[in-house]
């Protein structure tokens, strides 16, 4: 079986009937020209659907002579419903769940890290579950490509918080000792503020502190991620289903 586009694959199962001791000089197999094969309509397979079947002549030529042979080929198409509701939909929901961290405030490190790590481990378990019933193959299957892309998205969502945490910085660092020059600057600023009040000028807007600027940059990263991650995931998801639409 070829699992290259699994679970969108269509397999061909061949059944051959051949004479082992009589050559074509003694016996020849032939299909009935009117009704060569009758297939029971009540036959059901758990994962595959019998799409069609066709007959052929597979007479073999050996060194000892020609041996008559008949062949019937059953074309089996894999049912996608099971994989749609047990692999694709849960995987997409896990990826979407990892995006919830973009709406959690940057200071909530335990909540965001726990959500990212839990989503990544759950997706790894889901991927292992989807591979449990398959034989190990040396090539990449369609479901492997889909699961790998989803794993990358969950991993990048976790790395996004690492970037947010770096930008946010450590706001709880110990304050430096007082500087005499800073006191002079403060006195000068106080005199300017008193002069402004006496002249009736509107109050000057307060300047954002370094911590406020860092938090604003972190929030901007989260806002961009709220749009960028769903957009790229939708594009890649649509590309996947468009490529395999002909196999549905």
Summarize the SSE layout with pairings:
Elements: E1 10-18, E2 48-57, E3 60-62, E4 65-67, E5 69-78, H1 81-98, H2 109-131, H3 142-168, H4 180-199, H5 210-243
Domain Neurotransmitter-gated ion-channel ligand-binding: 1-79
InterPro entries: GABAA/Glycine_rcpt, Neur_chan_lig-bd, Neur_chan_lig-bd_sf, Neur_channel, Neuro-gated_channel_TM_sf, Neuro_actylchol_rec, Neurotrans-gated_channel_TM
Organism: Cloeon dipterum
Structure description:
This protein has 248 residues and is of the alpha+beta class. The chain has helices at 81-98, 109-131, 142-168, 180-199, 210-243; strands at residues 10-18, 48-57, 60-62, 65-67, 69-78. Helix 1 (81-98) runs parallel beside helix 3 (142-168).
């Amino acid at each position: 079986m070829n699992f290259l586009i699994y679970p969108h694959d269509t397999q061909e199962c061949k059944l051959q009937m051949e004479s082992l001791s009589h050559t074509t000089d003694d016996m020849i197999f032939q299909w009935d020209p009117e009704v060569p094969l009758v297939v029971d309509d009540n036959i059901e397979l758990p994962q595959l659907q019998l799409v069609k079947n066709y007959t052929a002549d597979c007479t073999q030529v050996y060194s000892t002579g020609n041996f008559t042979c008949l062949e019937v080929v059953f074309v089996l198409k894999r049912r996608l419903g099971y994989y749609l509701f047990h692999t694709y939909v849960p995987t997409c929901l896990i990826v979407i769940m990892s995006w919830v961290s973009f709406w959690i405030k940057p200071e909530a490190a335990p909540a965001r890290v726990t959500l990212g790590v839990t989503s990544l481990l759950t997706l790894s378990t889901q991927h292992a579950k989807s591979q449990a019933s398959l034989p190990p193959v040396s090539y990449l299957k369609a479901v492997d490509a889909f699961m790998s892309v989803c794993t990358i998205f969950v991993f990048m969502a976790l790395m996004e918080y690492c970037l947010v945490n770096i930008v946010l910085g450590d706001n709880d660092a110990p304050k430096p000792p007082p500087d005499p020059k800073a006191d002079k600057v403060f006195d000068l600023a106080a005199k300017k503020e008193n002069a402004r009040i006496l002249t009736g000028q509107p109050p000057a807007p307060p300047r954002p502190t370094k911590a406020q600027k860092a938090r604003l940059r972190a929030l901007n990263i989260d806002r961009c991620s709220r749009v960028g991650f769903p957009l790229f995931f939708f594009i890649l998801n649509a590309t996947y289903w468009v490529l395999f639409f002909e196999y549905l």
